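Bug #2210: token dump truncated for 4-coumarate-CoA ligase 3?
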Amino acid sequence: MAPNNSNQAIDPRSGFCESNSIFYSKRKPTAHPPNPYLDVTTFISSRAHHGKVAFVDASTGRHLTFADLWRAVDSVTTFLSDTGVRKGHIILILSPNSIFVPVVCLAAMSLGAVITTANPLNTAREIAKQIADSKPVLAFTTRQLVPKLSESSNLLRIVLLDEQSKPVVENPRIVATLEEILKKQPSGNRRVRDRVNQDDTATLLYSSGTTGASKGVETSHKSFIALAQIFIGRFGLDEGEHRFICVVPMFHIYGLAYALALPASGTTAVILSKYDMHDMLSAIEKYRITNISIVPPILVALVNGADELRSRYDLSSLRTISCGGAPLSKEVIENVVERYPTVTILQAYGLTESTAVGASTNSLEESRRYGTVGLLSPNMEVKIVEPKTGEALSVNRTGEIWLRGPPIMKGYFGNAEATALTLDPEGWLKTGDLCYIDDDGFIFVVDRLKELIKYKGYQVPPAELEGLLLTHPEISDCAVIPFPDKEVGQYPMAYVVRKARSNLSESAVMDFVAGQVAPYKRIRRVAFIASIPKNQSGKILRKDLVQLATSKL
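Reproduced locally. Full output below:
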């Protein structure tokens, strides 16, 4: 975005404006649709689609052409309307990746209903907490996952997403199967539609905060429209033929972004229900995949096993690998270049609160600016703010990065206090990441003010695990930190202060947590300590503990 005052001079090299201390994107801006009454489904469906096949199930080969996709969306929309779903109602999706997840999303959002997603790995207790907060009127899930809704409200109606027709398990909460819904002809004349504004909420995705309380991020239709435009421009999807494979979970903004942005360009998306290296590479070979987006642990596995993998699979169609979650080292980038010479490695930076938009590298030359997450995305603005004083900083000075632009969230659902702490009155999103921007406008992430642990791309809030550990009768105090690991990125490690005369073991601590959380949140290392280091205000000095834990590596 350009500054409102044309007299304000922007440094063309860095994008920095001296008069207001704002960095502006150097990318070519996208033209946002001016009509305020536009839902993301209408935006996507109204675009010219040069492709024929929208989604393919990698395991079964079942596919949806674009004509199939929009017929399915119409059928589900009619069902939702006939079931009483209206604008503002919340629809839960609890499912592994599926070609039908985008169908449900697009149908619900066309009515102004709001999609919330849950991680299938979460426990029934964790899912029940999300349901209690968001209060969905309907849940789409699979037969296998129905038991995970057992602790939620008995009034929550369920639609089964399973593709194959099987006898429905006797459960009064199951009102339909998706197969039944798709067999019925949509009846548009009975459909009830409320007028949807671009500023209306489209999704409610839960982002784990450092407080331990999982917060629902409200993202608007405008944000997803902006995301789709940025996505299309970044990969040049309006030109040439592209085929993506979707590996990242769709319950996460990273995966959902691809599921919703790709149909806007007529691009084929091949869907993996869950990540498996063999399945992913087999699908790349079979469907001649050109683009893949992954997280660093998968990229490291591709690099380390390159010789064997290239001998077993034909990966010659692959043109780009985009990686998000953490900046890539020079070693990793150059290993990709050496072992996959026809592939361009790209990077991206974004948050759930920014609809996965923030910065990116769009070429190998940009990715070779080692340590960077790229240039600011189109139509976005940045401030680098000194955390203690609030001073806006210029180039090459480190501070918290604040983002502003169309993809930024509306706020946290039902949590005005958390919203006020994260979004300022001028629309700046305080990311919690410490960064600097160099003379050429490239963003470098230095550290995290937020303390989330990144395990295989999943976010694990330390405070949630600490709160759980403190319920153990033999633990008087504790702290959870990220422990670095080449394979998974980071995993949770606990420092525990035992109560007097306790002989609590490391395995007992790990087992206690494992029985109550999703697998990716499990404690995988325990150390006992006399006291937890804290500052004067009582905050845990995690950096001291990280230094202690890694000093013997």
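Output looks complete on our side. The chain has a mean pLDDT of 91. Marking as cannot-reproduce; reopen if the truncation happens again.
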